Amino acid sequence: xxxxxxxxxxxxxxxxxxxxxxxxxxxxxxxxxxxxxxxxxxxxxxxxxxxxxxxxxxxxxxxxxxxxxxxxxxxxxxxxxxxxxxxxxxxxxxxxxxxxxxxxxxxxxxxxxxxxxxxxxxxxxxxxxxxxxxxxxxxxxxxxxxxxxxxxxxxxxxxxxxxxxxxxxxxxxxxxxxxxxxxxxxxxxxxxxxxxxxxxxxxxxxxxxxxxxxxxxxxxxxxxxxxxxxxxxxxxxxxx
Length: 240
Ligand code: ADP
Ligand code: MG
What we know:
Blueprint: E1 2-11, E2 14-24, E3 29-33, H1 40-47, E4 55-60, E5 63-64, H2 72-77, E6 79-82, H3 94-105, H4 110-123, H5 139-151, E7 157-161, H6 169-184, E8 188-192, H7 196-201, E9 205-210, E10 213-219, H8 220-225, H9 230-239
Parallel strand pairs: 3-8, 3-9, 6-7, 7-8
Antiparallel strand pairs: 1-2, 1-4, 4-5, 9-10
Bound molecules: adenosine-5'-diphosphate and magnesium ion.
Domain ABC transporter: 2-236
GO molecular function: ABC-type amino acid transporter activity; ATP binding; ATP hydrolysis activity
InterPro entries: AAA+_ATPase, ABC_ATPase_HisP-typ, ABC_transporter-like_ATP-bd, ABC_transporter-like_CS, MetN_ABC_transporter-like, P-loop_NTPase
């Protein structure tokens, strides 16, 4: 589904990604962890070309997204993204938030888009909020809507960038539960997170990044039982 070779990304003189190799299969759930500033968000953003890679190749379903001839908008339709700060449209209600992209980008009919949106609201447990505006929702509810909104485009991949970091502790579980059920349904997911419980029990693989390189890429079981690097153990000691 995703194949990254020797990816490098610099901002001016600052080398942020220094040769990333990574393959992710269909249906895999991969957690990316690592200290702040190690390049996790930049890596995710390169995957849908929100950042332009400096060097290397990124293939999504065998399409090299760095080639000028690749229609990046088509590729993006297939990649959902969920951010730390929800980014819902504040002046649109929940139903409108969920239908705007399918209506505009996929040319869905209004009826079909709304039916699909209601299905998704049911799935994230928020059917009763279809007419609410984002500022009438809790953080956990906003994030569940953001996930439903990503799903409305029927992507094959969803990228999550610290989806629970901005939430009050009591709201973390409701969001993780939605993510867990997506994982169970076979969604391909790349999840930057500090939630070690999720990495341990839901992710198939854990990637540990440090200073722009991948230091570990292991099954989650092996990662937590037997990390290879001192640096990983230090990091885990600090956050566990
Ligand atoms: P992480 O998500 O692991 O905390 P980031 O990928 O956000 O790390 O950032 C990695 C490094 O790249 C940091 O030093 C950050 O300041 C820098 N950086 C990220 N985005 C930009 C940008 N648009 N311009 C300049 N520097 C950036
Ligand atoms: Mg980040």
